[in-house]
Design the sequence.
């Protein structure tokens, strides 16, 4: 009987990597399989009867090839005008050239835009156009012609595979845990499985069928529960509560993003709250290993920088969605400088780097200028040199980079142990809870990739990495067809944060990059990081405009009779 049990557990160790690969492949196929037709909101018609579809809520018109609507005339500036749609369905035309060459009828832009209505005569330089706004019924007809994601690849079957993966993972822990700890672990994995199925059935009840993004997040969160079970089994209940809190934040923020007018109206209060949080951290922060990035409130310890990530993306997207207003860019630059400066003063170099790279992404999406990005990078280099002179422990980490084996008992202690443990795990791992890296400091946070590779194998470790990469690829693919620049900028900024965080964690733990001590998205132990990752996921979900794919996007059928589309 004992031999039979050992064979079952050994088989589980081989089946789990196959399931992980299958889950990842099914999510990727489902994301890429749909032949997507972009949404159409209005048309511009020339005198000759040619029409140009308006596919976004912020549409740039000009002679440049990068414009949404290209008019190849010598009289037309590179970026001549912008068509802006509010989330209530109102259109305005803005003259970007400041020459007064854009008008609607005889009305010219006095700085606040010109209201448009169906059939309006629009003049762009010397080009005469007619604006055609689509009614709800017309948009519904166009929308129904677009290919729906449907159930080409059943999300329920993918979720079932994930549930089996979770059950096998709990089975592996029967060898390494005591009975009391094992019961807690099994209940934890069972609670996660029940939660994901409840989410699935609720979303299906409201006619949503796109679950790839959430499935990847649940897969990564499953590995996160495994990490906690290995390193701190007594904290399983706490981690599960934090995970449920993260899912609640994801749902709440996704619902909030359904109304863009409301979302944008709150950007400055959100910015003020973020800055107040950082200021409180600077004043009352707890120093740990050279960084004052911890704050204790009512006995609960948290990292403000993790929550500020969500606020940073929120403010950046809400401030920069009006692509032609420079004051929005300048305001965001000031906000970014304060955030990065505060993190540098705290000594949280990894978080400061994540914020800075995200700023570059947002600034480039706003300006399209490599020169702007180059100047920002040059300024950052000077800032890094200054930080290295005033923060000796950060300079020490750079000195250790690529030289961890020179001092395996000192500065290179963590990474040499991590590399050795990851190598000992092979493709299939030594078994959940059976590794030795868990006894090394920060194995469940900064070194979590090596811990996963040791206990569950390189295949599952790489699947965790590719799960985050898939989220980023899907976001980039969705960006070209996003409704509003807010959703596009927010989603790209959120994935940029996750990708930089992933790179710093994985490459830092294997000595390919300096060891900055940031967490692996969704996987590393820690409530602040986990909640932040689920919050960032809401921005990614909101950018998904496939039919019936996102609860964060309102469809025509969601508000028939309201007279407005949001």
Sequence:
């Amino acid at each position: 009987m004992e031999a039979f049990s050992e064979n079952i557990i050994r088989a589980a160790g081989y089946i789990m990597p196959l399931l992980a690969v299958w889950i990842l492949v099914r999510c990727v196929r489902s994301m890429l399989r749909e032949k997507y037709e972009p949404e159409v909101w209005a048309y511009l018609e020339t005198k000759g009867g040619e029409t140009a579809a308006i596919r976004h809520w912020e549409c740039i018109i000009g002679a440049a090839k990068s414009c949404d609507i290209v008019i190849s005339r010598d009289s037309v500036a590179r970026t001549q005008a912008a068509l802006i749609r509010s989330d209530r369905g109102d259109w305005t035309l803005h003259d970007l050239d400041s020459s007064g060459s854009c008008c609607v009828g005889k009305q010219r832009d006095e700085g606040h835009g010109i209201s448009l209505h169906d059939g309006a005569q629009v003049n762009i330089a010397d080009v005469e156009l007619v604006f055609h706004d689509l009614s709800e019924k017309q948009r519904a007809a166009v929308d129904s012609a677009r290919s729906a994601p449907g159930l080409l690849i059943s999300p329920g079957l993918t979720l079932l595979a994930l549930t089996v993966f979770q059950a096998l993972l709990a089975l592996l822990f029967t060898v390494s845990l005591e009975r009391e700890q094992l019961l807690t672990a099994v209940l934890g994995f069972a609670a996660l499985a029940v939660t994901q199925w409840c989410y699935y059935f609720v979303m299906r009840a409201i006619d949503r069928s796109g679950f790839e993004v959430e499935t990847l997040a649940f897969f990564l969160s499953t590995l996160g529960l495994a990490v906690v079970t290995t390193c701190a089994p007594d904290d399983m209940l706490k981690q599960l509560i934090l995970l449920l809190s993260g899912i609640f934040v994801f749902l709440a923020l996704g619902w909030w993003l359904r109304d863009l007018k409301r979302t944008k109206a709150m950007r400055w209060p959100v910015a003020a709250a973020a800055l107040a949080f950082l200021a409180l951290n600077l004043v009352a922060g707890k120093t740990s290993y050279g960084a004052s990035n911890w704050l204790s409130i009512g006995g609960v310890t948290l990292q403000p920088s993790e929550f500020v990530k969500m606020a940073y993306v929120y403010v950046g997207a809400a401030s920069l969605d009006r692509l032609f207003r420079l004051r929005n860019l300048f305001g965001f630059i000031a906000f970014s400088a304060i955030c990065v400066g505060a993190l540098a003063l705290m000594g949280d170099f990894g978080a400061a780097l994540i914020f800075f790279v995200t700023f570059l992404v947002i600034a480039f999406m706003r300006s399209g200028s490599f020169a702007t990005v180059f100047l920002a990078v040059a300024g950052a280099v000077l800032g890094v040199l200054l930080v290295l002179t005033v923060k000796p422990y950060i300079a020490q980490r750079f000195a250790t980079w690529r030289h961890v084996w020179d001092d395996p008992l000192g500065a290179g202690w963590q990474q040499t142990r991590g590399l050795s443990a990851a190598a000992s795990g092979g493709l299939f791992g030594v078994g959940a809870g059976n590794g030795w890296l868990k006894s090394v400091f920060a194995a469940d946070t900064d070194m979590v990739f090596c811990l996963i590779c040791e206990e569950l194998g390189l295949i599952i470790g790489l699947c965790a990495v590719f799960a985050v990469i898939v989220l980023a690829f899907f976001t980039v693919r969705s960006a070209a067809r996003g409704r509003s620049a807010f959703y596009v900028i927010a989603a790209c900024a959120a994935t940029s944060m996750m990708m930089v965080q992933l790179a710093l964690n994985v490459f830092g733990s294997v000595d390919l990059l300096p060891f900055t001590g940031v967490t692996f998205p969704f996987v590393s132990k820690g409530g602040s990081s986990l909640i932040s990752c689920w919050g960032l996921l809401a921005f990614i979900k909101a950018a998904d405009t496939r039919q019936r794919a996102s609860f964060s996007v309102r469809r025509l059928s969601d508000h028939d009779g309201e007279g407005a589309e949001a």
Notes: The first strand starts at residue 42 and ends at 46. Residues 181 and 534 are 27 Å apart (CA to CA). DSSP finds 18 helices and 14 strands in the chain.
